[in-house]
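P.,

For your records, the input lines for the assembly:
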Amino acid sequence: NAGVMQNPRHLVRRRGQEARLRCSPMKGHSHVYWYRQLPEEGLKFMVYLQKENIIDESGMPKERFSAEFPKEGPSILRIQQVVRGDSAAYFCASSPPGLAGNTGELFFGEGSRLTVL
Amino acid sequence: AQKVTQAQTEISVVEKEDVTLDCVYETRDTTYYLFWYKQPPSGELVFLIRRNSFDEQNEISGRYSWNFQKSTSSFNFTITASQVVDSAVYFCALSEKDSDMRFGAGTRLTVKP
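Structure tokens returned:
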């Protein structure tokens, strides 16, 4: 039973380029969360999605960042016109339907590390 | 809104010492879940423990133990006889029912030989 899969594990972009990070949740999971970890900091919640719906995007920067979780395929976190301050580790997590109604546990991927030159 | 505070930013101990990492949380819900994760230098998040709000029993797993006290809203983590491999950043986290997980800022533990 594969865990949460994130790719790429490492991504290097120049300022102004676009970054796309992908997350495939665990089998049977329909809830996806994205977290950002800036260097030497903790994880900050960004967005919570279900299939084809954004449930909570209160942690997403207002500009340049977007996320989707289509009916088919992985969830995508997209960062347009990247800046150096976007350099961070981006973690995806998933949970089964009803999420925290059961155990509250999120299952994390290994993270995607974005470096903006 | 839920909130997690890890007041200790960095702790340094010598191998074989015991060390306690503090975690204090805030929530208005009566149903919630508390977690500890370890993030070693390699960067991945390693799940250590989950505790729900109705289970105040303390837990021991090998050299790890957790002390959950609702009266003080704390969920502290103790490593007994620390080892160099315990060096990592440790995160405490809280999730409320039907809500996302919120993390503390983390405590960086360095265990010196």
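Two observations worth noting. Residues 35 and 50 of chain B are 5 Å apart (CA to CA). Chain B has no helices and twelve strands.

Regards
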